[in-house]
Amino acid sequence: LAIAAVIPAAGVGKRMQVAVPKQYLPLNGKTILEHSVQRISQHPLVAALWLALDKTDPYFAGTPLVNGALQRVDGGSERVHSVLNALQLIDATAYPWVLVHDAARPLVRQADITNLINGCLQAGYGGILASPVRDTMKRGQATAGRNLVAETVEREQLWHALTPQFFPTQQLREAIAQALAAGVTITDEASAMEWAGQPVLLVEGQADNIKITRPADLTLAAYFFEQQHL
Ligand code: CTP
Ligand code: MG
């Protein structure tokens, strides 16, 4: 099976509060983007990779990505548009399944990617890496200018959605396009598939597969990186 991969890397990293988009920040001697691209393209089932970059991205040219087969595609205004731009270039006959992974998740493990792919192929439908929430969860409600607890939400049913997310290429492309046309907010691939009424498998992944979002995440990522390589 030849799997296509899409890595959306066209964000500006606003919450990181640095001038450089966070995917170009260094982590253990390489950029975050290089780690993410390497970990995805190294997987033996991944045969081709589409990388969504900002049209005016001045940083990519200076990024020494070693893995050859990589197609660049223009990013869009939001993550979902970057992903859809890439999906529109993929031949779904040659690549019936697609793996979508955030550029900002440089710590994903090969074993998790394999578990996700195998779990989905076995089930016959798509799925996502996810990790169970640990804290007691509350639904909040703004009341008289304060945040009050409306209720405690049953934790057993709650998961953090991670990436990669793995879906049939054609189905995902159609689900995203139709959800966007209907004005639905799409924050990950699964939400488009859910909206389309498709089943989505939850495959438990390692919690160290964090998304670099805020400054403190860099310190955490460096620690996790070291732990993975001990
Ligand atoms: N992304 C993208 N195109 C966009 C926005 C985001 O390809 N228009 C990518 C980011 O580069 C990142 C992934 O989607 O790899 C996850 O998004 P997020 O963590 O939100 O990154 P940013 O949007 O860059 O960060 P922020 O929301 O803090 O600005
Ligand atoms: Mg964002």
Automatic annotation (TrEMBL):
- Tell me its EC number(s), please: 2.7.7.60
Entry's Gene Ontology BP terms? isopentenyl diphosphate biosynthetic process, methylerythritol 4-phosphate pathway
Q: What's one Pfam family here? A: IspD
- For the site labelled Positions MEP for the nucleophilic attack, the residues are R155, K211
Q: Which UniProt keywords apply?
A: Isoprene biosynthesis, Nucleotidyltransferase, Transferase
Would you identify the family this protein belongs to, as annotated?
A: Belongs to the IspD/TarI cytidylyltransferase family. IspD subfamily.
| UniProt-recorded name of the protein | 2-C-methyl-D-erythritol 4-phosphate cytidylyltransferase
| Upper taxonomic lineage | Bacteria, Pseudomonadati, Pseudomonadota, Gammaproteobacteria, Chromatiales
